[in-house]
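The instructor's notes for this session suggest beginning with a concrete chain rather than abstract definitions. Hand out the sequence below and ask the class to guess, before any prediction is shown, which regions might be ordered.
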Amino acid sequence: MNSTLARAMDKNTALVDEAIEKLLAPTPDLPESLRKSMRYSLFAGGKRLRPTLVLAAAECCGLNPKKALKTAAALEMIHTYSLIHDDLPAMDDDDLRRGKPTNHKVFGEALAILAGDGLLTKAFEAAAENAADLKLNGRASVELIRLIAYGAGAEGMVGGQVADLAAEGASKKISKSAAAKMLEGVHRRKTGALIVASLDAGAVLAGASKSARESLGSYGECIGLAFQIADDVLDVVGDKKKMGKKGSDRDNDKLTYASLYGVDGARAKARAAVEMAHAQLKTFGRKADLLHELADYIIARDK
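After discussion, reveal the predicted structure:
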């Protein structure tokens, strides 16, 4: 990560963390055990990629990014809820996340499930508050909630996770072309949908045009694909200690870009996706510098 991007990410992380702390401040009706469980995973060392995309998209479209912080925090809450649930015994059954014990290992399965539920619903409260703070009209406010729900829901991230479970071992039973189509569909939803929603949310908060939203959405689809391919490659060649992981996709017989195309072939596909992402940002000029740098970082990262 270059120094300019590192400074921007550090700045955004500090702002988002402050917003999250405010949103999860103690209240009489919030059980402290639940609050601790929610905070544990939120502050376990994530990259804050999705919140940064919200802020960068808002700025691209003319809004002071600080005015989009509640929605940025909302997207991180949704991402974190998905990780908590993904680590559960009924799903991937992971003991470690980002080098730390997973939520259910610390707080128990029941509270981990409820912490995920709490984060998901708190996210929509935060996004709705953001819309009210900016005095968005009814149509824009509803659109903000709709697009986040779609990206996180049955046709987005959740549907992608279901498809990912169904794809385990699939490459041994179907043709390579069918497996490739299945894999792209999985990750367009599982990883890409929430990334697209993050960018689109920032654009809607800024009152962006339809064409601007479409360009940012196309960029999001490209970097979402590149991000997942990079993850697949890191699962094979990455340092497990640095990544904070214990198991591997190979151990779970998962269909991945690395298993389907090999490490070199997967890396080539990731580079191609990033080049396509850069092309979607031409109309924004220098306002999109951070988004360009994020696209390059996605395939250069080591964890």
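Then share the key points. The chain has a mean pLDDT of 92. The CA atoms of residues 38 and 79 lie 12 Å apart.
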